[in-house]
Amino acid sequence: MYLTIIFNLVLAVSAFSSGDRAHLDVRDNDKDCPIFVYTSWRDLILHGDCRSSVQLTSSSGQTAEIRCNVEEGRKVFRFPPGIFEIDEQLLIPASCSIVGAASPNDMANPKKTPDWKGYQGVDTIRPDDNGALCGGGAFETKGCAENDCKVSQVNTGGSDGEGSMHVVIENVRINDFFFAEDQKKIGFPIPGNYDCKTDHWTEECCFCKPNGVRSTQVAVWVPESRNAEGTVDILIKHLVATSAQADGINLHGNIKGALVHDVYIENTGDDTLALWGAESFPEQITFANAVAVNPGIMRPNWYGNCVATYGLRSVIFANITCEAPTLEQPIPQPGGGEVNIDTSMFVFYTSFGGSYPSGNSIYIKGWNFKNLQGTGYTVQEGSLNTFKPGKMVWTKAENGILAPFYLPDKKQEVNVIACEGLKDEC
Predict the structure, then answer these.
(1) What is the band of 370 on the pLDDT scale with cuts at 50, 70, 90?
(2) pTM
(3) If you count Cβ atoms within 10 Å of the first and of the last residue's Cβ in the chain, which end, N or C, has fewer?
(4) Using CA atoms, how far apart are residues 328 and 334, in angstroms rounded to an integer?
């Protein structure tokens, strides 16, 4: 049983970049689940065709229907049990919702795999052209196809490139279809994959070989947009992702108002929860009741922390759990630079264009920081202000509280207020 709901949005659903098919699996306890090819249902969603019902025939001859009703001004498409293949970015019209059969996730036990499998990507590598996270999300909002809108005029899903407004992504499960088969490959060393001495990755092999774990690049990707208003009012809740080749959730560019809460994400190839404002200064952003497990493991020892920011105006992190290992031999940046994996629970970067304007604010309200065996990290066992292999960094916040965060570059003023509880004011 499971449910996929997307309210009031224009959203691009991107399957992958490898050319194979991904699945949007909305099964309900049906062992002989019908498979519906993409072309049989694509136009219905793409054109917002809201007839009372549309008959479908599966590849094996089974029949089902997608029902559509107008509810409170929205076109609500209700999908039957089945596997719905998708092999391109699908741009969902504004004021449309996609609803599956029932909720897939028990947020009290997010590791529990239901009988169905959810949204499944099939990438087994993070390609070189995606090194800075250009697309590849299971769910994407409208915006630019490149990380920087000035690079090209191409937009996500053939959209206008303007930011989405009033988007809800709720009760989705991502990359669980093949997880039982592929989980033994997670973190497994691949010979010849660790020539990461320079940034000339076309000349050397720095994770150029597939890890064999079938996933999407990202669970949710909000790209930079072309309009001055940016992306407005994003809600992501009750999301579970068992793996990702790149980030778990990445909010990029000019965003005004985003709430991510009650999510569980493990086994990423980059940061688990990322806010990448660059010079666009996102504000009124909140991450709450989120669990991040084993960041960066899809590219072992290379890059990724539970929470990372790259420029912002204001953000709140409330009741975040981070489970991450300490590493004795992490891979430094080319040329012997900083280590960028498992350095602390929260890392506030100025790289990738990250800028923090005057008056910026970061609130950390409550945290649970532990290793993969469940033992909590302490200030006494960590390092202060500076990373040391085998230790997690702790830093004194503006209000004098020592908290598990790290400022690799002290050239910009990043204002961090921390409190161990969830008080309104730290």
Answers:
(1) very high
(2) 0.93
(3) N
(4) 18
